[in-house]
Automatic annotation (TrEMBL):
UniProt entry tagged with the keyword Membrane: no
Signal peptide residues on this chain, from the entry's feature table: 1-29
Taxonomic superkingdom: Bacteria
InterPro entries xref list: Autotransporter_pectin_lyase_C (IPR012332), PbH1 (IPR006626), Pectin_lyase_fold/virulence (IPR011050)
Keyword terms: Signal
Stated name of the protein: Right-handed parallel beta-helix repeat-containing protein
Length: 368
């Protein structure tokens, strides 16, 4: 979802590689299963590469009282050749998650076949909980009205928990190439990568209004959005903590790394580096969020127009500590920070060595 900005004549577009190591199922998986009520089920082991058995195991886990666990074979790839379910949001490679399902593996991959019809990998329904540990999800495509247009990898309308996993190479024509968290949905990511995904808005991750996301200790890299938020587009409540947000791109509009269009957005103890915007805000763009950037390095980002490091047009932006250095506004002003609306305040933030200048207009704590 992208909000139009009449003054610039925009037309709204509705729109990590994590190395596989010795992963263990996190405690949160057990906790979520216990919350479901009843006795925790034994794990169902899926033979290497047997996608039909994977679909069957998830269907069983969906209906198991207290939840079910699906264990994938170490290092194996499960290639989906057709949709297992088709709901009102389009086809999904796996059964729609309506119960309490855990998928665990060590370096395992679930992917859509390159020759298959378009479908996303997974969808979590309201009331459903999906926990993924040590698994890569790749190749999903939500790209047509019949295939759905949100969440190329995962469409989360319920509760999603991911740890030590990767969502890579997925595509959505509207929101969330990697993951789309729909209104009312919640998602938690721990040491999880969102890489090389593409969408209209939110190439790696899209957080919709009234949705909530906590992202901790992972890399969001190499994602592309045609419109806003190459790495992340947020309209809900989003915390990005100890994240590396790098080398993401918007083709046409704002927020090469991160875009805030509403709600509360916090970037804490992170690195926002090497991102590029087709217009404003190479690193971060705020068009309506309550944005806090704390002890974060914003460096080496590029905007085609204004605000190489950070662009503010609406909302409130507060920078606390950290630095904004070495960013570039190629065709405009404010290589470090550019503001044409909203409020921007700095507290102990270093803004230096940006091109062609640091802050436009001049801000308290930043000149030139």
């Amino acid at each position: 979802m992208r909000l139009a900005t009449a003054m610039r004549g925009f037309v709204p577009v509705m729109a990590l590689a994590v190395s596989t190591g010795a992963f263990s199922l996190p405690a949160l998986a057990d906790e979520h299963q216990k919350r479901g009520g009843g006795k925790k089920s034994a794990a169902a082991s899926v033979p290497c590469g047997d996608s039909a058995a994977l679909v069957t195991a998830i269907s069983t886990a969906n209906t198991t009282p207290g939840g079910g666990t699906v264990s994938l074979a170490t290092g194996c790839t499960y290639t989906l050749t057709s949709a297992a379910a088709t709901g009102s949001h389009g086809p999904d490679g796996l059964p729609i998650i309506t119960g309490n399902v855990t998928i665990s593996g060590i370096g395992a991959t679930i992917s859509r076949s390159a020759t298959a019809a378009d479908f996303r990998i997974a969808e979590v329904a309201p009331g459903g909980t999906l926990t993924v540990s040590g698994v890569t999800l790749s190749g999903g495509r939500a790209t047509t009205p019949t295939a759905g247009t949100d969440g190329g990898g995962i469409l989360d309308r319920g509760t999603l928990n991911m740890s030590q996993s990767t969502v890579t190479g997925n595509t959505a024509s509207n929101d969330g190439g990697g993951v789309a968290v729909a209104p009312g949905g919640t998602a938690t990511f721990s040491t999880t990568g969102l890489t090389q995904n593409r969408a209209g808005d939110g190439g790696g991750l899209h957080v919709n209004t009234s949705a909530s996301v906590t992202y901790n200790s992972g890399t969001i890299s190499g994602n592309t959005a045609d419109s806003t938020g190459g790495g992340v587009a947020s309209y809900g409540t989003t915390l990005l903590s100890s994240a590396t947000i790098q080398n993401n791109t918007t083709t046409n509009f704002e927020g090469g790394g991160v875009f805030g269009g509403g709600g509360n957005l916090t970037v804490n103890a992170s690195q926002v580096t090497g991102n590029k915007a087709g217009s404003f805000g190479g690193g971060i763009a705020n068009l309506g969020s309550t944005l806090q950037v704390q002890t974060t390095s914003v460096s080496g980002n590029t905007a085609t127009l204004n605000g190489g490091g950070l662009f503010s047009h609406a909302g409130t932006t507060q920078l606390i500590g950290g630095s904004v250095t070495g960013n570039t506004a190629n065709g405009g002003q404010g290589g470090g920070i550019f503001s044409d609306g909203g409020t921007v305040s700095l507290s102990g933030t270093t803004v230096t060595a940006n091109t062609p200048n640091n802050c436009v207009p001049t801000l308290a704590g930043c000149t030139g």
